[in-house]
Amino acid sequence: MIVKATGAAITHAASLLRAGGLVALPTETVYGLGADATNDAAVARIFEAKRRPRFNPLIVHVADIAAAEALGDFSERARATARRFWPGPLSLVLPRRGDSGLSPLATAGLDSVALRVPAHPVAAALLRAAGRPIAAPSANRSGRVSPTTAKHVDQELAGGVDVILDAGPCPVGVESTVLDLTGKRPALLRPGGVTLERLAALLGAIDVPAADESAPRSPGRLPSHYAPSLPLRLGATDARPDEALLAFGSEAPPGFAEVLFLSRSGDLREAAANLFAMLRRLDRAERFSGIAVMPIPEEGLGRAINDRLRRAAAPVSRPPAPPRNRETPARDA
Ligand code: TXA
Ligand code: MG
Q1: What is the CATH number of the domain that holds 117?
Q2: Residue 232, SS3?
């Protein structure tokens, strides 16, 4: 059920969370599927609703740095990073505290934990009202495009969630950056809403493991993530028959069956905010032979955009899809 994220709705959602329920919540990046991270049964419901493999750990969301320090071991470097970028679209992988009280399911049995303090006012209010850590992956079925509106969540997980808090489209539009601070050098496990450039300005050199290398370290980084059902063609400069185009910049090459502009002004922020909704829209139209995407610069938020696009385009084996519902936009991956 989709409800407008009023104060009363947030209070009600917090009590659902404390009772072991599943709440879809807006964050500045994408909508998350939240559950009490200290409750095994509640966390197990997340994996079921998403059909997510259990080896893939979840991001644990908290209201502030103090709450995060009860769950992870903060080095001075971690504290400085948190102070600089929280609340915001950054998840920090830190050693998990022995007395964290987190469900081992939430961290997939790892001795580390990914922590995030989101900036979205509804997420922040919900975390304060719930008063406990909330595990929340993106609120899509495993392997599909992340939801940036409440309606997307409903299309993905209808029935599997107790309430969907609607606060309109997510302003950032791509997931949080996942930064691993457990090693000697910081490692970028997933590019996202906080750019590598900004992190490097604070932290100096940051390892950027190749995608296949980071998969074992960040189990969610399977190549075939974020998959639409239509074939995706990147760096496109010309049209193929019946193809739709995601354009970047003011000039789109001729001949496409439909053109959606990620950003006419070539603004990477605007493009990130539009990316998943536009992919979903073209994928659902069911009248195109494929989706082409114009080249996007590999800098700033462009790294996160290109990362999601490369994963969406990866022709990698996918787990068997559940029965396909006409209402659902994309095949499982
Ligand atoms: O923006 C976001 O991060 C959204 C919103 C809802 O917060 N959440 C999100 O969660 O994207 P999810 O589950 O779709 O992605 C979490 C990523 C996965 O790639 C997972 O493998 C990685 O974080 N991760 C979680 N815990 C980890 C850990 N202890 N070590 C390494 N990677 C971890
Ligand atoms: Mg996800």
Answers
A1: 3.90.870.10
A2: strand
φ/ψ bin of 192: left (φ > 0), alpha (ψ from -120 to 50), beta (otherwise): beta
Pair (49, 103) in one structural domain: yes
Three-class DSSP category at 140: coil
The Cα 13–Cα 247 span in angstroms is: 39
Q: Give the binding-site residues of ligand 1, using a 6 Å CB cut-off.
A: 27, 29-30, 32, 56-59, 91, 93, 107, 110, 112-114, 116, 136-138, 175-176, 178, 189-190, 217-221
Report how far ligand 1's centroid is from the alpha carbon of 114 (Å).
7
- In this structure, the answer to whether residues 101 and 199 fall within a common structural domain is yes
Domain range for 77 is: 2-203
Total domains present in the chain: 2
Ligand 1 centroid, distance to 280 Cα (angstroms)? 21
Please give the chain's pLDDT, 333 residues, in tens. 999 999 999 999 999 999 999 999 999 999 999 999 999 999 999 999 999 999 999 999 999 999 999 999 999 999 999 999 999 999 999 999 999 999 999 999 999 999 999 999 999 999 999 999 999 999 999 989 999 999 999 999 988 999 999 999 999 999 999 999 999 999 999 999 999 999 999 999 999 998 666 555 666 555 556 678 899 999 999 999 999 999 999 999 999 999 999 999 999 999 999 999 999 999 999 899 999 999 999 999 999 999 999 999 986 544 444 443 333 333 222
Ligand 2 center to 118 CA (angstroms): 15
Cβ burial of 77 (10 Å; 0-12, 13-18, 19+) is middle
Q: Structure pTM? A: 0.92
Q: Ligand 1 pocket check: which of 25, 33, 52, 178 to mutate, most ligand atoms within 8 Å of Cβ?
A: 178
Nearest-atom number in ligand 1 for the CA of 139 is: 6
Report the nearest atom of ligand 1 relative to the CA of 172.
1
Chain centroid to CA 137: 7
325 found inside a domain: no
